[in-house]
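thread from #wetlab-drylab

HS: before we spend reagent money on co-crystallization trials with zinc ion, can we at least see a predicted complex? here's what I'd submit
DV: go for it
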Amino acid sequence: MIVDVALDIPQIDCLQYELDCQRALNEDVIGQWVLVELRSKLTIGLIFRVCESIPKVKNLKKIIKILSNLPKVNSSWLRFINFTAIYYHKSLGQVIFTCYPNYLRDPKRFLATQKIVKAGSFDALLREPQHDKQQTKVLFKESTLNPEQKKATGLIMSSSKPILLHGVTGSGKTRVYLSIIKSIFQINQTAQILFLVPEISLTPQLEEIFRKEFPNLDFGVFNSSQTQVNRSKVWLKAARGHLRLILGTRMAIFLPLPNLELIVVDEEHDSSYKQVEGGLRYSARDLAIWRASKLNIKIILGSATPSSETFLNSKRNKFKRVLLKKQASGSPHAELVLVKKTNSSYVNGLSEKSVSQIKKILKAGKQTIIFLNRKGWAPVMICKDCGSSATCKFCSANTVLHKNKNNWVMKCHFCGDKTPPPSKCTDCLSENLVSVGIGTENLAERIGRLFPEAKILRLDREAIRGRKALQDNLKKIRAREVDIIIGTQMLTKGHDFSEVSLVVVVEVDAYLRNPDFRSPEKLFQSLIQVAGRAGRRESLEKNLAKVFVEATNFDSSFFDHLRNYDYDNFIEAVLKERSKSSLPPFTNFATIRLAHKSNSTLSLGLESLMTFLKNYDKSDPILEDVLINGPLPVYPEKISNRYRGQVILESNVRSILHKLLKNFSKEETFIKKFNASIDIDPIEI
Ligand SMILES: [Zn+2]
Ligand SMILES: [Zn+2]
């Protein structure tokens, strides 16, 4: 029997091998993990199909071993992999091995048959018979829901469409998720549930909730920060159907789950669901929607601020929107106040109004969050005489001034290079250099001077390194060990702090100047998210909870919507604008990016890429329906001494883009010489 085996190699989908078992049925073989030889090395592969035709080469290599300890995957998972490979223009193997644990790639693990294995070890787990385990009934108590949550649960259970669970912060989305999960377990005793979160840091909170709600549940966490052994255990148990609930980050979407019955994508608007680097650049949210629809199972996309794509899908009735409008505690939003920047904002980092409000909060024994999404001391250092700024030697980007204890250093946020601050301007040799703008390090010092009695915590990726440090500091906040928290984006991601009564957002103007068409949407989402940290509980009743947004001018309608927490009208306006300018989600984008160490070689490469795309089969009229924009710069144009450039493809008809890209993905020269990468539905262009 000749079989097609998918291996973790680029561009080639499958290689043919001979399998020594004449009478096996195709269904018994397809989806089996196998050990084969590739370039005289043993490697793991997956039998993707049985070949009916005559082999392309004589003397095919034989499959060395069928790995019966690894769970055979089913045909629906193979279809999902096949779709992903076609959609993102990658090989089957590249998709299959995206979440396959490295620990299980070692052929030795499957060859040492005589070895005695220790009970409870990973090898013992690996050798467990596949279908030995009896599914235990998941035990739980009925959820107590308020009328709105009860109604939402009913609507979700009775709908066959993907669900957008649009619930304001504090409306109890998690309670609704739990009640749906319970309903699924009630209907199906073997059901598996995949619960996706955008950030690893959000898992401990949810893990605690799940363990409390389902005391006897076989539950697993799957993400990139766990040890190889742990990840392998979870992968194995999930693929065998033994784990009933898996909490994971984006790559968990690729887990083989034989009894999958529900997918939850929490905070679906979060850009972390998109893999933006490396070989396979995928959107876990979009793949989850596809996977659920083919399996005909339920999918819930939850958010207080749904993405424009999801919102449009619900408007077009492709998704069913279920609303949760009430905060579970019954209290309204914290009042959102627009505060004009004053001289004090520049000198002290905050306006007088914000300062006096913080004083009030401190007196009441509550906490304040100050949100500034910019790390470091100052984003740029410029020469007062000629106006040039300090840049990185290896990248075409400004270096950022940092202060670590009492050491000053210039850091490049793209390549990580560190240099001492310059004493002279590199262009005119003037010594008249100044830092411009303010980052979290600088703000924390100023706040320290304004409130010398307060305990201050800075929460950004420079101050808090690693998952444990973040968890420890989040605990400190919850235990009320700090009074003022100064933080970046890290703070906005769904963390629940009950004692925070005031949120102050500074330097909003800078984000609104960002030319990316997605930036107003992203900004609005993160402001609503961070505003939701204020007054989660009792402080609202005392009328203390407030959100202050500092900026220089509030003329745009952006702020009218923001002041009223009016997400619907804001996103409607965004969609109107996008439709008028023919931007996603009203059209489809794909980018091809090239990189090279020589700028002139890159330019030639981009030119020949343009020619290649424009000369696509002239007899095929598809070119009439696609816009080929380029060559265009990528910001920053140079990273680590490599210049970058791109071509943006645009079409109303997605299949046309794919046709063009399929043709391109066979062109090895671009891939080898220019490290070409394709990004479908890019989130940054
Ligand atoms: Zn100068
Ligand atoms: Zn750099």
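DV: The CA atoms of residues 497 and 552 lie 29 Å apart.
HS: ok that's useful, forwarding to the group
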